[in-house]
Write a structure and sequence with these properties.
Sulfite Oxidase, Chain A, domain 2, alpha+beta, five-stranded mixed β-sheet, six-stranded mixed β-sheet
Length: about 200
């Protein structure tokens, strides 16, 4: 029965143009990451925005969760070939963060810095899309530790490694700098509908 349900969903998503090439649907939420899952103490956790901004800011958990929130229903696509549809997220829109810190004109890229030194990079223009956020709830509940608790970026139009788990700071930069997986050979643009999985081989 579960197989039939997944097959029917996959056929519907194909017909609607929502399933990227090379992907298969999943009804689960697979867990994939490099390294251990951090233990987070919300009493000491903070999130920093720095670099080419008019005003650097640091939010405590209390201050961050007091910011206006939005909910987004969106599809997500992993480079390991699964896609999950109509996922529900809640958090702070990235463009609202930009408005608060005042990004300088020469800022063209955003580097997300996460626990254990993990980074990923994105063009600023792409991060200003309406569906990009700093998410801390999934399906109406706080994120599971395996999925990025307490906060992750959500960049639905790119393969899901660009949605960085356990984010701790956002750097606004003039020049692009490859992140962890990008340095390992993953494609810098990561568009699922163009199958931009790897930059070589």
């Amino acid at each position: 029965m579960l197989f039939d349900e997944r097959r029917d969903l996959e056929n519907r998503m194909l017909a609607e143009g929502r399933l990227p090439p090379g992907q298969s649907t999943t009804l689960k939420f697979p867990v994939l990451h490099y390294g251990p899952v951090p233990r987070t103490d919300l009493a000491t956790w903070n999130l920093r925005a720095f670099g080419l901004v008019n005003e650097e800011k640091v939010w405590t958990w209390e201050a961050f969760t007091a910011l206006p929130t939005h909910t987004i229903t969106t599809d997500i696509h992993c480079v390991t070939r699964w896609s999950k549809f109509d996922t529900l997220w809640e958090g702070v829109l990235f463009r609202d963060i930009v408005e608060m810190v005042g990004v300088k004109p020469e800022a063209k890229y955003v580097i997300a810095h996460c626990e254990y030194g993990y980074t990923t990079n994105m063009p600023l223009d792409a991060m200003l899309d309406d569906d990009v956020m700093l998410a801390y709830k999934f399906d109406g509940k706080p994120l599971d530790p395996d999925h990025g608790y307490p906060v992750r970026t959500l960049v639905p139009k790119r393969y899901f490694w660009k949605s960085a788990k356990w984010v701790r700071s956002l750097e606004f930069a003039e020049k692009d700098r490859l992140g962890f997986w990008e340095q390992a050979g993953y494609h810098n643009d990561a568009d699922p509908f163009k199958e931009q999985r790897f930059s070589r081989g």
